[in-house]
Every structure is written in structure tokens, then in C-alpha cells.
Amino acid sequence: MSAIQRSKLNDGFLPKGAIVMAKKSKRSKPKNLPATVSTDGLPNDFESLQADVANCKKCKLCETRHQTVFSDGSNKAKLMFIGEAPGEQEDETGKPFVGRAGQLLTKMIEAMGLTRNEIYIANIIKCRPPENRYPETEEVIQCQPYLMKQIELLKPTVIVALGTCATQTLLRTEETISDMRGKYVTFDTGKFKTEHFMPTFHPSFLLRSPQGKKQVWKDLQVVAKTMGIKIPHQKSV
Ligand code: SF4
Fold it and tell me: Could you give the CA distance from residue 206 to residue 202 in angstroms, rounded to a whole number?
């Protein structure tokens, strides 16, 4: 590998680093969520579902959003990334993961030899929580059916949950992301089930703690293997 290639990797997604533990967030997480989420009555195609979301006023986040943020990527993708909620730039553009964390996610996807057009990205919450606070319980209860329906329509081979909120909310667990990351668990919406649900760190956490990139890269290599994706030689660690 050339010095330039090394430099690119070290400036980007694959720096050298020690093992880190996820820092405990001071934000308060949604609690006491119901065990099941129903998607009954929601549209059976992406276009109509997105239109429903665009007009949704089921929780108070509709009052402060500029626009809803439904998804990015391909409706035919077999690899799905799920984050928490839109931030400021996502709220302005209507696209998930376009800020600094989103740019890092794009690098991660490209390091796997993929583009954003070949995967599907969505969040649990479709409208920006003010000041990027955690979504509240009622907001998750109202909004999560949209995400569940997206999963049921997409039927992904692998789901990558980005960060504590996505992982704990979707799995209804209190286990830390440090304990859960890197190991596949089963995820079941009731109408769609996969054995390949991979929790890993959120790109925002990696911006604060770049050492964690090494662990995320390990997790994504497991995902790539499951998907039968051959990671480009120059991208290997
Ligand atoms: S966050 Fe979800 S439930 Fe709340 S208004 Fe937006 S789309 Fe509707």
C-alpha cells in the first residue's frame, strides 16, 4: 500500500486506534416503550408511506420541523442503516445523514465498496427533535411504525443499527452499545424477521471518539461477509 493510500485511510474512516468504550450519554432516552409496534393500516408502497410521513402531525415534532426526513438510498437495497433522528442539516435538506456524521457514514459505506445509492438509510424518528435531544417516548410510539413499515417493505438481508438510541429502542433493551456492538442479534417486526441485526457505534460518537472507528470497521467487515461483498483491497485495515 502506498503512503498516499495509507494517508487517505488514516485521514478517513480507518485510523489506528485503541479499543474504546462508548461514553455514557447525558441525554435521557425514551423509556417504557410498548413491546410491539403495529404497522396495520400503513400504505404498502414506499411512495405512499413517504407521503403519509410528509403530512404527519402525530406528535409535537411536526410543529418545529422544516421538513420530514424519510430515507436515502435504494428501495431495492439489501443493506439498511438505521439512525436515531434528523439533525439540523437533515431537517434543512430532507435527507438523513448529510451533516458531519453523515459524511463519515458515507466514507464507511464507500470503504465497504458500496455507494449510498446501493444501500437504504432511515431513522427511527422522521422529524428533528429540538436541539438534537433524544426522542421522547410518545414521539417514538407515534413514529416507529413508519420505520417498521419501511423495514417490512424493504426486507433487508442485514440491518445495521447506528448507536445507542437506535439499538436500545429497536431491541427494547437497556444493554449498552459497547456490550452489544459487533454481534448479530435477531430482529423481528412481527411481519419480517432477520437474524442479521448488527448494532454498532453511531458516526457522531466516532467524531468525538475516533478510536472507535476500528471497532466499527470490524463490525462492517462482518456485515460485508454476510452480504457477500468483497471489500476493495486498498480499503482493508
Ligand atoms: S416525528 Fe414522526 S410521528 Fe412525529 S410528526 Fe414527525 S413523522 Fe409524525
Answer: 7
85 lines ligand 1 (CB under 6 A): no
- Per-residue cell: 77: 437495497
Quick check: 20 pLDDT over 50? no
Do residues 229 and 114 touch, judged by C-beta distance below 8 A? Answer: yes
Architecture of domain 38-228: 3-Layer(aba) Sandwich (3.40)
Ligand 1 centroid from CA 129, angstroms: 10
Ligand 1 centre and the CA of 143: distance in Å? 5
Alpha-carbon distance of 64 to 91, in angstroms, equals 10
CA 236 to chain centre: 23
Residue 162: pLDDT band with limits 50, 70, 90: very high
Distance CA 141, CA 164 (A): 17
Q: What are the C-alpha distances in Å from 60 to residues 95, 106, 142, 189? A: 20, 30, 10, 25
Domain residue ranges of the chain, discontinuous segments joined by +: 38-228
pLDDT, tens digit (0-9, with 9 covering 90-100), for 197-232: 999 999 999 999 999 999 999 999 999 999 999 988
b/e map 193-213, b = 16+ CB within 10 Å: ebebbbbbbbbbbbeeeeebb
pLDDT-based confidence at residue 89 (cuts at 50, 70, 90)? very high
DSSP state of 70: -
Instruction: Identify whether the C-beta of residue 49 lies closer than 8 Å to the C-beta of residue 150.
Output: yes
